[in-house]
Write a structure and sequence with these properties.
13 strands; four-stranded antiparallel beta sheet; 532 residues; five-stranded antiparallel beta sheet; single chain
Length: 532
């Protein structure tokens, strides 16, 4: 009976996951392993010969990486523009430090080319790196890879888990600091009321005043006496008009100088004007600019703000709408239902999971991962399964829509797929690494393991030192950079579980392609140096 159960991959998988969650909730002086404890339980099962099939692990890794890419995609390119150079530079520093450490270990221990290339790939847990190492130095590279790989996995997990405590950093406080920086770059949109007193704008049309151009703010409505008026280009301002203006704090400072005195309290909507919020779910308007919809002309309605992924955006005419955007609308009561119908406003569609984009996206990612680029007879490069799926998900998520296909996923669906994929991946990686681990140490000695230990650990220490004391990088960006630079998916899982912010995933996605390409190049270089 017991043998039959242990030979069942499904039974073993869920036993490992269940035990992993139990162990992960054990609190030792404020430190818990959370979901990453699954890999430690899996190592124990693997030591006793129980293995979760590689197909399940690859399937899980693909789901996890695709969900990460879809989540990180919208913020990836903006982050790369603002922080990309510094984060990519740190990833390059990590890879180069690992390469120099590998060469030092090779010199001290007298290793051959196969051992050297395998150690570097294993210490940084890179499957594409192993493929390169075997191609450059032969199949024996897999032995040193197998010795360095377990600590490459476990070491990164423990390092990112302990790093905030070692540096005496409150992750939640850093999370708030990062949010404050985001608010500085993308200030919250607020609504305020003003009385028109500036004689320079009294008696002039809104299209002549060009308030948005001069201040960046938007007039949502005008109250004149007991009448509520929706603003149009031809609307003429009169002295004493009360106007509701929506914009950033900076734009409001300019508006006060431009319009007149600020007044407290809410302005009445009037009998025929109301405020509504609606969700963008109609496929026909996704990726179309707000200005091209002509909502004011067609429906007598204006958009005062747009909320996307928890961030309020100013309703610029050039802003392209995305699926799930929440619009704040002010318009005539008799046309509001028509407006909401036009934009979709189907809350159920936002929470529904459409598997067509997921299946198509992953299939495209597999194809991209198999594309091989040859730069010379001795240097070829491919992104591999992980890199191909990640890059494809990032690009598709940033595009948002291709024809009728929306490259998006609801928050709960993303979380479920990411968690499921991660658990499958950790169970397979752990059991695979645990098989024969003790025997490998006995036959190959401890020198390769110790070498792998330093190749994993020293680059992270150097990178943290430079990042914190020279670049002053937020701990969440640093954790993502470390796990991305180490090409460590389990490390990302451990870091991601420490915060509710997407900053870790975005930083990981930012540096991962750089680290993967540079590592493959470095493995080829060390193979030629040692082999030559």
């Amino acid at each position: 009976m017991a043998h039959s159960l242990l030979s069942s991959p499904i039974f073993v998988l869920f036993v490992i996951i269940a035990l992993g969650f139990i162990v992960g909730r054990i609190d030792i002086k404020g430190i818990t392993l959370d979901v990453s404890a699954v890999i430690f339980v899996a190592l124990l099962f693997g030591h006793f010969g129980v293995v979760v099939p590689a197909e399940l692990g690859n399937f899980g890794m693909t789901l996890f990486i695709f969900a990460i890419g879809i989540q990180a995609g919208p913020g990836f390119f903006s982050t790369f523009k603002s922080k990309g150079k510094s984060l990519a530079g740190l990833a390059a520093l990590l890879i180069l430090t690992a390469t120099l450490t590998t060469l030092a270990v090779t010199y001290i221990c007298g290793l051959n080319a196969a051992d050297t290339a395998g150690l570097l790939a294993g210490a940084l847990t890179s499957t594409p790196g192993l493929a390169t190492a075997r191609e450059m130095a032969g199949d024996n590279a897999a032995i040193s890879y197998g010795i360095a790989y377990p600590f490459g996995v476990i070491g990164v997990i423990l390092f990112v888990k302990l790093l905030p405590r070692i540096l005496k950093i409150d992750v939640r406080q850093e999370e708030r600091a990062l949010e404050a920086d985001r608010r500085e770059l993308n200030p919250d949109i607020v609504a305020r009321a003003y009385r028109v007193t500036n004689p320079l704008i009294v008696g002039r049309r809104l299209q002549d005043i060009q308030l948005r151009l001069h201040t960046g703010a938007v007039i949502s409505r005008i109250v004149r006496g007991e009448e509520s008026i929706l603003p149009h280009a031809a609307t003429v301002l009169q002295e004493g008009d009360l106007i509701k203006v929506v914009g950033t704090p900076v734009s409001h400072d300019k508006t006060a100088e431009f319009v007149g005195e600020r007044i407290e309290g809410e302005l009445p909507f009037g009998k025929n004007v109301e405020l509504q919020t609606g969700l963008v779910t109609a496929r026909s308007i996704v990726n179309r600019t707000l200005g091209s919809l002509n909502l004011q002309q067609n429906f007598g309605c204006i958009v005062t703000r747009i909320r996307r992924a928890g961030i309020d955006l100013s309703p610029e005419p050039s802003l392209a709408l995305k699926f799930g955007d929440k619009l704040t609308l002010v318009g005539r009561k008799d046309s509001m239902e028509e407006v909401l119908s036009f934009i979709g406003n189907e809350g159920k569609r936002v929470s529904d999971t459409d598997f067509l984009p997921i299946a198509l996206g992953i299939a495209l990612g597999v194809i991209v991962g198999k594309i091989s680029l040859s730069f010379s007879n001795s240097f070829t490069f491919s992104f591999g399964l992980t890199g191909g799926v990640l890059l494809t998900a990032l690009v598709l998520s940033a595009i948002g829509k291709t024809g009728p296909v929306l490259w998006t996923m609801s928050g709960p669906a993303n979380q479920l797929l990411r968690q499921l994929g991660l658990l499958l991946f950790l169970a397979n990686v752990g059991t695979s690494a645990g098989v024969g681990l003790v025997d490998t140490f006995r036959t190959s000695g401890w020198s390769l393991f110790i070498g792998g230990f330093f190749i994993t650990l020293l680059p992270m220490i150097v990178t943290v030192t430079v990042a914190r004391y020279f670049f002053r990088i937020n701990i969440l960006d640093l954790l993502g950079t470390l796990t991305g630079g180490m090409t460590s998916t389990p490390g990302l899982a451990a870091a991601d579980s420490m915060s509710d912010s997407s900053a870790v995933s975005v930083a990981y996605a930012t540096v991962y392609p750089v680290a993967m390409v540079l590592l493959i190049i470095c493995i080829q270089i060390v193979s030629m140096i040692v082999g030559g």
